[in-house]
Amino acid sequence: MPKHLWAARVSIVLLGGILILTTSRPGQRLIAALDLRHASRALLYGSGSPFEGLRDSSSEALQTDLIIQTPLNPFSDPSNDDAYTHTVSRGSTISSIWGSIKGAPKAAADFAQAFVKHGKSAGQLKEGEVLEVRRKDGEVVEVRRQISAGETIVIEGHPDEGYSSRIERARLIPVDRKASGTITSSLVASANDSAIPYAVIDDFVDLFGERIEFNKDLQPGDTFTIVYEERRTEGGEVADIGPIKSASLRIRGTMFAVVRDVAKDGTVRYFNEKGQLPTKGFLRYPVKYTRISSVFANARFHPVLKVKRPHHGVDFSAPIGTPVRSVGEGTVVFAGYSASGGNMVRIAHGARYTTEYMHLSKIAKGLRKGSHIDRGAVLGAVGNTGLSSGPHLHYGLFDKGRYIDPMRAKIASDPGNIKAPPAVMAALDAMRREHDAVAMSAPARKSRA
Ligand SMILES: [Zn+2]
After folding, report:
1. In this predicted structure, which of 13-27, 111-125, 230-244 has the lowest mean pLDDT?
2. Separation of CA 279 and ligand 1 centre (Å)
C-alpha cells in the first residue's frame, strides 16, 4: 500500500448500505465504495485512486474486514425518516419509550403486551441499549430489539390492527476456531490470554480430566491447542459456541489428545491420542473447573470443630448455587440431611467406588435413595449447610470404603476395542506433526547439564 495514503484523512460513510471511503487529498476524493447489501459481490471503485492496485489481489481481504466491522443496518441511516434508532435512557419504561418513538397512544397497552411476551420485562431494558424503529405513514409498524448476537425480538403491527412479537434468529454459520497457548501461571490464565470462552475451557478440562489433574500436572511451558466451533452471524458476531472438535495437550513433551467423532447412530465420542475409545471413567472435578476458586486437600484443622481431624475429602471453594455434578454414572445410596455433612448425597459407582458431596444448599429435585444418575448429571448445588465455615463443596471418593484422594486417583478406564475411523487417525497424525514442530522451535526448557 502506498505510504502517502496514510498522510491523508480517510472518511468512512455508510449510506443506504453502500460504504464509501473518501480522503481529504485533492484529486483523489473517492477511494472506494463497497456495496454491503450484496456483500458477496461487493464492488470496489476508484478512478485514479491509490487503492486501484488492490482491486484484484486484496479486494477480498478488504471486503471481509469491512463486513465484519460494519453490520448491515438500514436503521442507522439518518437520511431515512421512517427507520431510525432509539437509545434507551435511564429509567425508561415501555410506555415512556412508546411515547418517545411517537407511538399511537391508543395502542400503548397492546404494544407493551407484545413487548413483554417473550419474557423480557420493562425492567430488563438497559440504559444505552438500542432499539430499531420503523414507521410507515406516521405510525410505528416495527420495533426490533437485539437480545443476543443471533437473536432479535421483532414487534410488528399497526395501531389499528394490534401488535404481535416474534423472535428472529439469525442464520448462523459454523466456523472452526483454533486457539492455542502456553501455560504461564495457570490453564485458565493462559486460556484467557487466547480469548477462549469458559465453556470451552470446562469442556477441555472434562475431556482430559480422567488422566490429568490440572492443578498438579500442568507446568509453565506446557502447551495446548483447542479446535472448537463458533457459530457466527453473517455480520461476523459470535452467537454461540459449539463443541470441541479436537484438542491436544503437551505435558513435558508427552502429547495427550482427543478427537471428536460422530458414530453412524449419532453418538458423539472422543478418541484419544492412540486412536482408542476409552470407556468413561470419573470426571476429575464435581463442579465445572472455571467455577472453582481454589482447591485444597489433605489433613487440616477443621475450622468449625477446632480439632484436627482426618479430612476425608477435597474442599472446593465455589459460590453458593454452583451446580454440583456426579463424577460418574451410579446409584444414589443417600440423599438427605446429616448433622455434619448438611445436605449431602452419596453415590455408589458399581461395587467398588463411592463418592460423596456435602454442605449442599439444595439437592436436585426428585433425587433420592435408589435413583440412577448419569456421569455429569447435576445432583445439587454448592452451599454452606452442616458443619461448614463458608460456601464450599466437600467431595470424597472411596475405594471399597477406604478414602482415596480424588485429585490423585488414577481410575483405570478400559481402552475398548473400537477402532478409530481414518479421519480421526489422520487428524491425530496432523496434531502429532504440529506438536513436534512446535517442540522443535520452542526454546530449550531446562538445561539437563
Ligand atoms: Zn471438607
Report:
1. 13-27
2. 30
Dist. CA 347 → ligand 1 center (Å): 17
Calculate how far, in angstroms, residue 216's C-alpha sits from the geometric centre of ligand 1: 19
Please report whether residue 284 resides in a domain: no
- CA 390 to ligand 1 center in whole angstroms: 10
Given the DSSP bridges, would you call strands 330-338 and 372-373 parallel, antiparallel or unpaired? antiparallel
Residues 236 and 334 in one domain: no
Q: How far apart are CA 131 and CA 124, in angstroms?
A: 13
Residue 374 lies in domain: 289-404
pLDDT at 14 over 70: no
What's the pLDDT tens digit per position in 189-246? 888 888 899 899 999 999 999 888 887 888 889 999 999 999 998 888 888 898 999 9
Does residue 411 lie within any of the structural domains? no
CA distance 200 to 289: 11
Q: Is the dihedral of CA 220, 225, 229, 233 positive or negative?
A: positive
Q: Which of 136, 169, 202 is the last residue of a domain?
A: 169
Three-state DSSP at 392 gives strand
Q: How far is the CA of 348 from the centre of ligand 1 (A)?
A: 19
